[in-house]
Amino acid sequence: MWTLKDSRKNGGCLARQCVFLSLLSFLVVSHTGAVSFYFPSFGEPVLSEKHLFVTEAGPRPARLMCFSRESGEKLWEIQERNTTIIPWFVVGDRLVLTKSNRIYTASLQNGRTRRVYRTGLKREFQLIPHGPEGVLVMGENRKKEYVLTLVDLERERKVWQARNISWVVARGNGVLLCMHEEIRSDRRIRTHENQKLQALSEENGRVLWETDMASSGVAVGHLFVVYQDGMFVGLEQQTGEIVATLKPTHPISGHVHMIEQNGQVLVKTRIDKKMEIGEGDPFHNLWGENESTPPQQEIRRVEVVSI
Predict the structure, then answer these.
(1) CA dist 183 → 131, 146, 194 (Å)
(2) pLDDT at position 188 over 80
(3) Looking at beta carbons, which pairs linking 40-48 to residues 24 or more positions away fall under 8 Å?
(4) End-to-end Cα separation, the chain, in angstroms
(5) Mean pLDDT for all residues in the chain
(6) Are strands 34-36 and 46-48 parallel, antiparallel or unpaired?
(7) What is the DSSP letter of 80?
(8) pLDDT tens digit sequence for 104-138
(9) Complete domains list, the chain, with CATH
(10) Which of 104, 142, 223, 260 stands 20 to 30 A from 63 (CA)?
(11) CA-wise closest residue to 246 among 262, 280, 223, 213
(12) Residue 102's CB: how many other CB atoms inside 10 A?
């Protein structure tokens, strides 16, 4: 175990402490090589195989520090004056971070930064790793419209950009299932219109097909499974064709959250507000773990069961 302390004075003596336990070694590192955890004392850190990246506390941190995961030794830091620094994830031997609305990469060895792309977005935006050298950028631009941009980190340029895309719901085989919605502002009233799901090509960002809005979705095999109008629907990723449907055996109340695990779809939701099933929301299995691409006749005879 080792300890991080920040005892700088700010209108009085304020000590901040962040304890990093060796037990964190059991935490699973994602395919990008890094995963984030929340440390209230220092803000949200990024953990990679050999490094811990953490910012100072506060909503707009201007200081980023890199520590050795093994020893706790501080390796380097980046200090700005009035620029917000946010670490996102590690790609190869570089940390992807943002300074204000600009994307940078920093060397894991010495923290030397390189500017990659200026997003032109407002402060609230999201970055998602995409392949070995790409990053998906989601946010709202100054024209008050959502945009989704694929940026090539190695070539330091935009690959493609799609308008009115507020979120990536699921990633399939060369296809992104995205939430499409348009912002309408009338004085102080802000609304979202024309909401639907669109499937975009990962190669060029073009719309392959679209369908009605869904509360959630997940990729499994060659399908996107979405929840629409009280039904679980399996859509062919490349064409949007409906190839499977399933009506829950119990009424579902509230939001539906789905995850894919080893070829099966798990659904987390509250089946009925009047029913008490355990202390938390139950998980339900849509189809067997051996059915990575379930045919229509199989789906229709499988009931939603508690596990």
Answers:
(1) 30, 8, 9
(2) no
(3) 41/4, 41/6, 41/16, 41/17, 42/4, 42/6, 42/16, 42/18, 45/87, 46/87, 46/88, 46/89, 46/90, 46/95, 48/90, 48/95, 48/108
(4) 37
(5) 76
(6) antiparallel
(7) -
(8) 999 999 999 999 999 988 767 899 999 888 999 99
(9) 1-115 (2.40.10.480), 119-213 (2.40.10.480), 220-307 (2.40.10)
(10) 142
(11) 223
(12) 15
CA dist 272 and 278 (Å) reads 12
**Residue scoring higher pLDDT (75 or 301):** 75
- pLDDT, residue 123, reads 67
For residue range 276-288, what is the model confidence (pLDDT) as tens digits?
Answer: 333 333 344 454 3
CA proximity to 174, closest of 148, 197, 208, 146:
208
The predicted structure's pLDDT at residue 191:
80
User: The tokens of 200 are what?
Assistant: 């975009």
The amino acid at 269: T
| Residues 121 and 147: beta-carbon distance below 8 Å | yes
In one-letter notation, the amino acid at residue 32 is T
Distance of CA 122 to the CA centre of its chain: 18
- Report the distance separating Cα 167 and Cα 214, nearest Å: 12
pLDDT of residue 280: 37
Hey, which residues does 135 pair with through a beta bridge?
129, 151
Residue 57: both structure tokens together = 């506390």
Residue type, 171: R
**Global pTM exceeds 0.90:** no
| DSSP conformational letter for 23 | G
pLDDT tens figures, 7-29: 444 433 333 344 343 333 333 34
